[in-house]
Amino acid sequence: MRTVGSLLSRIQARPSVIGAALVLVLLLAGFVGWRLTGGGEYVAPTPTTAPAVRADTAGARASLEQLVSGVREGAELDGEDASAVAVRNAHAIGIEDVTARYVAEAGNVEQDGSWAADVEMSWRTPGDPALTEELRVGFDAEGAITGFSAPQGTRLPLWLSGPVEVRRTGSTLVVAQTSTEVADRYAELAATAVAEVRKVIGWNEPRLVLEVPAAGLDAALGAQPGTYTAVAAVTATVDGSTKAGTPLHVWVNQDVIGDLDSPGAQVVITHEATHAATDAATNTRRPMWLTEGFADYVALRETRLPLSKTAGQILAQVRENGPPDHLPGKAEFNTRSEHFGAEYEAAWLACEVLAEAGGEQALVDLYDETGRGIGLEKALQASFGFGEDELTARWRSHLSDSAA
Looking at the domain covering 57-156, what would its CATH class be? Predict the structure, then answer.
């Protein structure tokens, strides 16, 4: 009788038996499979995975070089693709010193050969410092640029985000993703705002830049979704920093300001122009109520609307709950605050109280002195002869009288 041990010893003694046995088993398995499928010619199964598609990085680099040279050399690119549109935008705005450095692929290459890469880009708008951002650039299978985007927290400049309308004067620049007619409207608002601000403060070399993105302010400013949904416009540094002296632009929310009539829209733009003229986005020495209230004072200075229109929200609150016990601070000016608009009205009325008590120049002096770092109490005493407690009392009384 054969035992397992004797069989193993024979196999170990004759290695060729293993090879012959394996060949026989494989042949039999193939024959059985052939018989079960009905015979015929054997066909190898088709691979289930498609061959890998590689990114055309050489083509991408060439497209970036073409974009840069188009902006630098003033050469127009044919067509309506993203690169050609960006070059035309850059020429209209006056963009200078453009560079584009390919960094790395971002994600997988699609089956159609399209893909995206991180690209470090720099540029300079006349009057501004050079800006550098790492943006996301889309490419097609041949490496042609298909579009630009920005990661969360990074600003995407309007000249790279689609066609824009540009309006320029000696003191204003409007870059708008709007129709021709709407761009003309913003140009008029900007010019009027400069003139109105100069009637109150010394803006010797005015420069007001309006940027009007098509889709709200959050993406344009690299902010979390919903941050600026209810904000008509915001003045901020071009690079997102808080460094004093950094040029400021005004970003306009079309979803909000588009619903305003001409006087209302003008108030918004003049308010923001006041911030731009006084470096309000980088000067944090002033109390918030004075920064915002003074900007509204300038914007509403020549408005002849009743208080029911210019201060309706705060007066409604006073009728219901009485006047606030303190001037509005940073917490009240939160863009997500339930009573966001009322705080601006309250701050404006505080400045109205001051202008009525000491005149417009005294209010301007207070704004200037606090901006230089002089304490509010000291500056109030110097310009008006009373301090913050007296101002608060007069302001609360004015609110109560106006709400009656």
Answer: alpha beta
| Residues forming CATH 3.10.450 domain(s) in the chain | 57-156
Per-residue model confidence (pLDDT) at position 278: 95
The CA-atom distances, in angstroms, between 371 and each of 84, 284, 291, 374 are 44, 8, 9, 7
| pTM summary value | 0.83
Domain 164-282, CATH class in plain words: alpha beta
Query: Where exactly does CATH 3.30.2010.30 map onto the chain?
Result: 164-282
Percentage, residues of the chain above pLDDT 90: 69
Cα–Cα distance measured from residue 205 to residue 247, given in angstroms and rounded to the nearest whole number = 13
Q: What is the pLDDT of residue 41?
A: 52
Q: What is the 3-state secondary structure (H, E, C) of the chain?
A: CCCHHHHHHHHHHCCHHHHHHHHHHHHHHHHHHHHHCCCCCCCCCCCCCCCCCCCCHHHHHHHHHHHHHHHHHCCCCCCCCHHHHHHHHHHHHCCEEEEEEEEEECCCCCCCCCEEEEEEEEEECCCCCCEEEEEEEEECCCCCEEEEECCCCCCCCHHHCCCCEEEECCCEEEEECCCHHHHHHHHHHHHHHHHHHHCCCCCCCCCEEEEECCCCCCCCCCCCCCCCCCCCEEEEECCCCCCCCCCEEEEECHHHHCCCCHHHHHHHHHHHHHHHHCCCCCCCCCCHHHHHHHHHHHHHCCCCCCHHHHCHHHHHHHHHHCCCCCCCCCCCCCCCCCCHHHHHHHHHHHHHHHHHHHCHHHHHHHHHHHHCCCCHHHHHHHHHCCCHHHHHHHHHHHHHHHHC
Task: Let me know the angle formed at the C-alpha of 209 by 208 and 214, rounded to the nearest 5 degrees.
Answer: 145
Dmax (CA) of the chain: 124
Confidence of residue 50 (pLDDT cuts 50, 70, 90): low
pLDDT in tens, 312-326: 999 999 999 999 999
Please tell me the predicted confidence (pLDDT) of residue 290: 98
